[in-house]
Amino acid sequence: MQTLEKLSDRLFYLPPFQKTDRPILAAIVGDNQTLLIDAGNSSNHAKHFKEQLASYHVTGDILALTHWHWDHVFGLREMDMPSIANIMTYDKLKELQELSWEDKELDKRVEAGIEISFCADAIKLELGSMREVIIPDPTIIFEKRIKLNIGGVTCIIEHVGGDHSPDSNLIYIPEEKTLFLGDCLYANMYAEKWHYTIEKMYNLLGKIKDYDAEIYFLSHHPAPLTKDEFASFASLLQTSAELTNKHKGKIEAITEEMSSRFGRNLTEEDLEIITYFVNGYA
Ligand SMILES: [Zn+2]
Fold this sequence. Notes:
Blueprint: E1 5-8, E2 11-14, E3 25-29, E4 34-37, H1 43-54, E5 62-64, H2 70-73, H3 76-79, E6 83-86, H4 87-96, H5 103-111, H6 117-127, E7 140-142, E8 145-149, E9 154-159, E10 169-173, E11 178-180, H7 198-209, E12 215-217, E13 225-226, H8 227-246, H9 251-262, H10 268-280
Helix pairs in contact: 7-8, 8-9, 8-10
The structure holds zinc ion (ZN).
Zinc ion binds next to loops.
């Protein structure tokens, strides 16, 4: 079981759990309200988060969704509070409400290419035999950007999109210099080959640069990144995009130039990122 981490009086997070694809959940404590970030991948996940918060006498009042993927929304009913979503997330949730999560139906959707086995496997593992998933309608629907004042703290939620999911939001807390990126910098997994596209990445990195942050949360990274750690991750993405374009998706030329630019051998993570760009190069 994951244990809640306290970064400041205003900022708490529950680390992710890779085995069943639980993402990071977070709480921003204002003087008047507490904003929770993401609902978790099951009632159990949501319940565990609420219990951990309660041990610090923190209760959530309102919840923001980073995007529609199951692992971020299945705990919404258990959270039992008003929620905020952009219009694209809202529309996707309306679709999810109609689906069954039983093995047979999940397998059918994987077969049809609508669901991916990576998610279906994690859903089976996380939910066990309790497959009744009720996803309530989000309460507050916005289009591009919404700003909350929860008392001494501001939360800016901006719809930024990206390859991973077109409905992705980022959530910025200026007073804490903290930026929640959800999954927006991960690859598009709902495709035959996991991939990034050059233009979407440039676009996204450009938007992220506008936010002055010291702490960066990526929902499936084990811990938040410092400014320097994030800068090197962003530079890896930026350079991979640039070189994929320059070498027209030829992986050998890309890896060779990347290695010489970085002045070191490439790591497994470097190669994975390059592969996703090559997969998305058309
Ligand atoms: Zn996702």
